[in-house]
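Review the following:
>
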Amino acid sequence: MKLKVYLSGEIHSDWREEIMSGAADLDVAFSAPVTDHSASDDCGVTIMGPEENKFWHDHKGAKLNAIRTRKGIEDADVVVVRFGDKYKQWNAAFDAGYAAALGKSLIVLHGPDHQHALKEVDSAALAVAEQPSQVVDILRYVLS
């Protein structure tokens, strides 16, 4: 059985690479959002033209990014959402909620400091992990 896994959330660390390299021997196809922060933020104005108002600048980018995000989540068998320590990732919470609403198998990845803040997100997940290696172990278990 091949699993399609969408890796959503925090973009300021190498957690995706850790999971992908750890699962290199598994029958898994990974997908993810655009992780180049400026490319993601500016895609709307780069493609469709500049905006004077920052709201509309962000609005254009969010809509274009949603095309990729929705497709990735909808096509996935498993959605992994990582919450990092550096920023509040509202988009990650949104992705987790969207995946849960679609009935996707959801794995949430965050440190112990986020347990209380993410209790509702955690309760929608089928697994809550603290380390990328645990996600690899979960994928390995599911496939064996």
Remarks:
- Residues 4 and 29 are 5 Å apart (CA to CA).
